[in-house]
Design a protein that fits this description.
The complex is a heterodimer of chains A (505) and B (108). With 505 residues, chain A is mainly alpha-helical. Chain A has one domain. Chain A has 20 helices and 2 strands. In chain A, helix 6 packs across helix 9. Classes of the chains: A mainly alpha (505), B mainly alpha (108).
């Protein structure tokens, strides 16, 4: 069982999707979906604990050895990211299972396929396989984005699909260049061959730069991030909550490529420009937060803000910084997803005002107001919740790097702007009433929706309470990530012998 | 043959990029198709061009690299599915907004 652990996070959602396609009754699909999502949370949690022994678990699909076959590689970071995906998947699905899934066909199989693509993208150790999982993830996301219909979703969908298709074309060009230059697409083998002489370094560099550009498109780095706010705004609440992790796929891919392949061979590739562009993204997103007129748009801009903050880190090539980044990534993803769900709940409570930031009937339930307060505090990075802890860790570790003062200035100013914007928006939602002409009873909140939202909102205080063990885990994960030699040896086998090996070395 | 292939990839890419930059969904769709053709040819060439050689490794015989061919097959299938989905989405945008602008809005 332990030997086959790495493949389980892929098989569960995939099998669930197949079952759901075979059984088209909604109640049956919900049951399968929720049980699969629960199972996925348990399995990935187990995998995360399992990965903490520091051993890299390499799973050779079809038992073909690494440079020839496709491998899945589980390290601490990959395991933790699958767990995060599973938690988001479970809560979003719980939220969606009360009526959102009835607004279109095939919601449940597509949702599982999206989880399949996400976990696959985190686990794979092969670049072409990464492309395939990106496409699985994107194809499901195209359809989930359009789920529920409406002109806004179609409009956002067209530009989102076109942009990502161009991104896929660039990805393939980069892969073709890499294969033509180095003769391999396995990440470990690639890293190994980049350090050897005998290839065209200019072409390899170009290919890596293209790969970074594609990942930056997914992550929402500034000149490539204009699609993100309106796409996330248009998506339905549970879909947008799941999308909160999609930018993180790009960031984790950049981090992995940088630490394993680029740092030993061409450490100067991303150093000069990535930090500048990431800071520009932060500024852009902070302005967007101020300008947002809808709660959901606010959540989208905050997602972009956290992506920009995280993109500051890969160029620093520092294990301490990356450890803080991993903690920040986990807490900001959960908080961002919680905000999307909460925006959905609040929109349902305010009648015609929906989630627009204007005076309207206030949400009736007190827990909604408290949840908004907790979440806004977390997202603005104020004490005592996890947003503060994450930002503190990030800023402390970024003190030593050369671009430190600029990063401090931008991040702190952006945090201040976000705090003001959130305070203003909170006033609109909670205090600024407008008497409606007729008193209409607020929509009843289903217990699934309340549970899903509260679970994610509770992550803010909870992650602050368990910050110590979590940041220790993040630190171990970062150190594991910053040992590219170990990764290469674990995947290719000691001494690069290409003989047949067991699934777990 | 290398020159011919390079010219083909270049022309296809140029036409594809030109069409993608148009503001109507149909040219954009055609542009993406052309771009994916260019990418497929490019991927195919990444295993080097070799005439009259099977993609099978045999002792003493010349062979061509089979991996790029497999990659191209995967890329073709994925690209085809994506293009079909985009066509449906563009049609839906046309039906909902009454215009085929990429922003799904009417021309001013």
């Amino acid at each position: 069982m332990n030997a086959h652990a790495p493949i389980l996070p892929l098989l569960i959602p995939f099998a669930a999707a197949l079952l759901q396609m075979a059984c088209s009754r909604l109640a049956c699909q919900r049951l399968i979906g929720l049980s699969a999502a629960t199972l996925l949370v348990l399995i990935t949690a187990w995998l995360t604990v399992l990965a903490d022994d520091g051993q890299l678990r390499v799973y050779a699909l079809g038992n073909w050895p690494a440079p020839f076959g496709i491998v899945l590689v589980v390290d601490r970071l990959a395991a933790a990211m699958t767990l995060l995906t599973a938690i988001l998947g479970f809560t979003s699905l719980l939220y969606a299972s009360t009526g959102f899934d009835e607004r279109g066909l095939h919601f449940h199989p597509l949702f599982q396929l999206q989880l399949f693509g996400l976990t696959g993208a985190f686990l794979t150790g092969d670049l072409f396989n990464l492309f395939v999982f990106f496409e699985v993830m994107l194809l499901a996301s195209y359809t989930l984005l359009a789920h529920g219909g409406g002109l806004a979703r179609t409009r956002a969908g067209i530009s989102y699909v076109v942009l990502n298709l161009v991104g896929s074309a660039l990805f393939l060009i980069a892969l073709g260049l890499l294969y033509g230059t180095l003769g391999t697409l396995n990440l470990a083998d690639l890293a190994h061959r980049l350090t050897l002489p005998g290839h065209d370094p200019a072409l390899a560099r170009l290919a890596c730069a293209l790969l970074i550009a594609v990942f930056a498109l997914k992550a929402g780095l500034l000149p490539l991030s204009f699609w993100l706010p309106h796409t996330y705004t248009a998506a339905g609440a549970p879909v947008a909550a799941l999308f909160a992790i999609m930018t993180k796929v790009g960031i984790v891919s950049i981090l992995r490529l940088q630490t394993i392949a680029l740092a030993p061979a061409m450490p100067d590739l991303i150093g000069h420009w990535l930090t500048t562009l990431a800071l520009a993204t932060v500024v852009f997103a902070a302005l967007g937060v101020v300008a947002a007129v809808r709660l959901r748009a606010l959540a989208a801009w905050l997602t972009l803000l956290s992506a920009g903050t995280l993109l500051v880190t890969p160029a620093q090539a520092n294990a301490q910084v990356d450890a803080a980044a991993i903690y920040y990534l986990v807490q900001s993803t959960l908080a961002g997803a919680a905000f999307f769900l909460l925006a959905g709940v609040i929109a349902g409570q305010r009648g015609p005002a929906a989630d627009q930031l204007m005076a309207g009937p206030p949400p009736q339930a007190t827990w909604l107001k408290v949840a908004f307060l907790v979440l806004a505090t977390t997202l603005a990075g104020l004490p005592p919740f996890s947003g503060f802890v994450g930002k503190l860790m990030l800023l402390t570790t970024l003190r030593e790097v050369s671009a430190g003062p600029a990063i401090w200035a931008v991040l702190l100013t952006a945090g201040f702007v976000v705090m003001i914007a959130l305070a203003r928006d909170g006033c609109y939602l909670v205090w600024k009433h407008r008497a409606t002409t007729r008193e209409e009873p607020a929509e009843e909140i289903a217990w699934q929706i309340a549970t899903a939202t509260l679970l994610l909102v509770a992550a803010g205080p909870l992650l602050a309470v368990v910050a110590r063990p979590l940041s220790d885990y993040a630190e171990r994960a970062a150190h594991q990530l910053h040992a590219p030699g170990t990764y290469v040896n674990a995947v290719l086998g000691p001494g690069r012998t290409n003989d047949r090996r067991e699934a777990t070395p | 043959m290398e020159a011919l292939l390079a010219i083909a990839v270049g022309v296809l890419t140029a036409c594809g990029v030109f069409l993608i930059l148009r503001a109507r969904t149909f040219p954009v769709l055609l542009g993406l198709t052309l771009l994916s053709y260019a990418v497929n040819l490019f991927l195919f060439a990444s295993g080097r061009l070799r005439l009259d050689a099977p993609p099978l490794i045999r002792a003493g015989a010349t062979y061509t690299d089979p991996l790029p061919q497999a990659l191209v097959l995967t890329a073709i299938v994925i690209g085809f599915g994506m293009t079909a989905y985009l066509a449906m989405l563009a049609l839906r945008g046309l039906a909902e907004s009454g215009a085929d602008h990429v922003d799904a809005r009417k021309e001013p």
